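Note to self: keep these together.
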Amino acid sequence: MKKRIMAIAFAFMCLLSACTTNHQSNSDKAGANPTDSSRTINYTNIMPNEAQKRLDNEKEIILLDVRTQEEYEEKHIPNSQLIPVEVIEKEALTKLTDKNASIFVYCRSGRRSVTAAEALVKMGYTKVYNLGGINDWPYEVASGK
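Structure:
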């Protein structure tokens, strides 16, 4: 009986830990310094339908494309701002001046948006959302600069 209760408690704890919205970066997971490996990078994943609803109703959201200039000109979400992931740490502080603004980050498939979201959180931005990739965006897109 005691083993069964312990197994149920363990399963419940695993379930709870799987449902959090905190994400830990790869660099933090692999850190050699134990204090670094316990740090959590806090950003929230957001689905396209929820993002679209919020974009329709909230005017202060920053929609951030972190792809290359060429990818952006080919196709991007309207009213998005481009800061390629390669220069996010150099340009964010001057282009994204409000560290408390909601920032929806996207790229092509979702990999670069995670990298950018983690970088923004490390820089002190407090409301960072990973929208993933434009490949999964079912709504309007634009082309050109």
